[in-house]
Structures are given as structure tokens and as C-alpha cells.
Specification:
Elements: H1 2-5, H2 7-19, E1 26-27, H3 30-41, H4 47-61, E2 65-66, H5 68-83, E3 97-102, H6 109-122, E4 127-130, H7 137-150, E5 153-155, H8 163-177, E6 181-185, H9 193-210, E7 217-223, H10 229-238, E8 245-249, H11 260-267, E9 271-275, E10 283-285, H12 288-294
Parallel strand pairs: 3-6, 3-7, 4-5, 4-6, 7-8, 8-9
Antiparallel strand pairs: 1-2, 9-10
Bound molecules: guanosine-5'-diphosphate.
Guanosine-5'-diphosphate is lined by residues 103, 105-111, 139, 142, 188, 249-250, 252-253, 275-278, 282.
Keywords: Cell membrane, Cytoplasm, GTP-binding, Hydrolase, Membrane, Nucleotide-binding, Receptor
Protein name: Signal recognition particle receptor FtsY
Function: Involved in targeting and insertion of nascent membrane proteins into the cytoplasmic membrane. Acts as a receptor for the complex formed by the signal recognition particle (SRP) and the ribosome-nascent chain (RNC).
């Protein structure tokens, strides 16, 4: 799954790094290290991680002649270490457990909710969706279509209805039908950020009144094609919304999958899922080993 999803990033990175090896091997000196750094930066991994990868190679190989495979091996190993995280399964402690999904419009939020719901239904869980983005008719429509495809219930409000009331009704519905998980969509209008944060706060309060410790997960959807911009999207949400994990969407559409490195570093949040395409199956729990290997081979 990661292999096909990371194809664009892998191609870009492989071509770039292979370019450094016009001859048989290369001497690892300042010139080589500078060129390597420039190539790494192009994956949007950011200066910090690129410096670390470069310095690791300097430490291992400075003054020696290396082959492409040495460099790739070293980068893969280091990337794996950087991405390593404790296992981060979804926290679904009770019935129902409540998942809020936040992120800017266009990030892939609705699609990710559809794919995640399908993933959970596939595990035998009963899911209810809540169309909490009541200001975007298209989001409600899209989520309704997903619910029909998956065969799960959905709670919608009137256009412009209070998102918190939709969240409340969604949890109510989940209790009523004995659902395992309620997944609630939220608005993502960054222009009115303070309103948005108040709105998220209200949803949290309403939901926690209904069920102890809810929401159990607040998943932040980030758009991998946005590269470094995904980082500023994330900072807008991470503190205020009390996020518990990240869904990195559209990894397949991006040659900048390296952005996962600064995301992990800056936000101290586990990456729980990655989006690997537009169809319903195209989501996978994140795995650092597989991810790092798929970057190159
Ligand atoms: P929202 O506005 O955040 O709810 O975003 P949508 O879920 O509507 O997604 C925006 C666009 O991105 C749609 O065209 C989706 O099909 C597409 N999209 C979402 N997730 C992925 C993904 O993992 N891979 C690809 N290739 N496209 C995606």
C-alpha cells in the first residue's frame, strides 16, 4: 500500500539522488554533502531533518568513496528512526466512542471520514456519521453519499444549523442504535479561525456532556500535496482543537511526502492514518518501517 502511495515521492527522490552519482561512486566531501542536502530539501522534509540525514552520512562516510546503495541504505535507516512512533491505534474505549475530524476545507477531510468509516465497518464496527460541516452543502452531500456506499447511518442538520447540535444528535443516534463509533465532520474555514475554534470547543463540550471523556479522538486531516503549507495548516488547529492524531491525506498525489518528517517532529502527534488515493480502500494505518522502506524501493 505504501509503495504505490509513495510512488511520486519515491520517483522524485530516487531520480534526484541517483543524479548525484553520475560516475561509479562519489567521494563524500562538502560538495557532495551540500548537493545531497539540496536534493533532500526538495521532498519538503524541511531543513532540520535534511540536516540530520546529511550529518549522519557525513559521520559515517566523510572522506570515503560511496555507492548509491550506501546513501540510500543510510537515509532509509535514519528516516525509519525519525518516524518511529509508539503504536498508535485509534482510541476507541467505549460504545460509542467519538471521533471528531478537523482540518481546513479541501484537505481531504470528508473523503478521509468515508474511508475511515469503511475501514472500521470492515472491522465489524457499527459506525454513525455526523455531518457537522453544516455550512457546506457539498460536504453534507458528499458525506451522505459515503454513508450510503458504506451502509452506515448519518445525522445531518439543516443548512447553517449549529454544528454542535448535529454533533449532539449524532452521539444520541449512536447511543440509540448501539453504534461502536460516531465520526463527526467539522467545518474548516480558516478565514474565521477564532469562530471556528469556538465552534470546535462547543462541539467538544456538548459531546463530553453526553459521554465521559469524549471526544476520544480528534483527528487532524492534513493535505500532503500542500507540502510545507500543511505545517501551517496544522499549527492553526493542533493546540486549539486538542488534536490527538493526524491523518495525512493525498500522499499518493504528492512528490513531497517528506513533509511527514517535520509534521511528526513539530507536532508531537502520532500519524494514525495515511490517505493513499481517492477510492474507499485507499487508507492505511501508518507504519514507520513500511513507510521508510517505500521511500526508496
Ligand atoms: P474536504 O474539503 O477537506 O472535505 O476535502 P475532500 O474530502 O472533499 O477532498 C478534496 C479532494 O481531494 C477530493 O477531490 C478528493 O477526492 C481528494 N482526496 C482526498 N483524499 C485523497 C487521497 O488520499 N488521495 C488522493 N489522490 N486524493 C484525495
Amino acid at each position: 500500500r505504501f509503495k504505490s502511495g509513495l510512488q511520486k515521492t519515491r520517483q522524485a527522490l530516487n531520480t534526484d539522488i541517483r543524479d548525484l552519482f553520475k560516475d561509479e561512486g562519489r567521494l563524500v566531501d562538502d560538495e557532495f554533502l551540500g548537493e545531497l542536502f539540496a536534493k533532500l530539501i526538495r521532498t519538503d522534509m524541511g531543513a532540520g531533518p535534511a540536516e540530520e540525514l546529511r550529518d549522519d552520512i557525513a559521520k559515517r562516510y566523510r572522506g570515503r568513496k560511496v555507492q548509491l546503495s550506501d546513501i540510500i541504505g543510510s537515509i532509509t535507516e535514519q528516516t525509519r528512526e525519525m518516524l518511529r512512533q509508539d503504536a498508535a491505534p485509534l482510541n476507541l474505549p467505549g460504545t460509542p466512542s467519538v471521533i471528531l475530524v478537523v482540518g481546513v476545507n479541501g484537505s481531504g477531510k470528508t473523503t478521509s471520514i468515508g474511508k475511515l468509516s469503511n475501514h472500521l465497518v470492515g472491522q465489524g464496527k457499527k459506525v454513525v456519521l455526523g455531518a457537522g460541516d453544516t455550512f457546506r452543502a457539498a460536504a453534507v452531500e458528499q458525506l451522505t453519499i459515503w454513508s450510503q456506499r458504506i451502509g452506515c447511518d448519518i445525522v445531518t442538520g439543516k443548512p447553517g444549523a449549529d454544528p454542535a447540535s448535529v454533533a449532539y444528535q449524532t452521539v444520541d443516534k449512536a447511543i440509540e442504535i448501539g453504534a461502536d463509533v460516531a465520526i463527526i465532520d467539522t467545518a474548516g474555514r480558516l478565514q474565521t479561525q477564532s469562530n471556528l475554534m469556538q465552534e470546535l470547543d462547543k462541539i467538544r463540550r456538548v459531546v463530553s456532556k453526553k459521554i465521559e471523556n469524549a471526544p476520544h479522538e480528534v483527528l487532524l486531516v492534513l493535505d500532503a500535496t500542500a507540502g510545507q503549507n500543511a505545517l501551517s495548516q496544522a499549527s492553526g488547529f493542533s493546540d486549539a482543537a486538542g488534536c490527538t492524531g493526524i491523518v495525512l491525506a493525498k500522499l499518493d498525489g504528492s512528490a513531497r511526502g517528506g513533509v511527514i518528517l517535520p509534521i511528526r517532529r513539530q507536532f508531537q502527534l502520532p500519524v494514525k492514518f495515511v490517505g493513499l488515493g481517492e477510492s474507499i480502500e485507499d487508507i492505511a494505518p501508518f507504519d514507520a518501517d513500511q513507510f521508510a522502506s517505500a521511500l526508496f524501493s
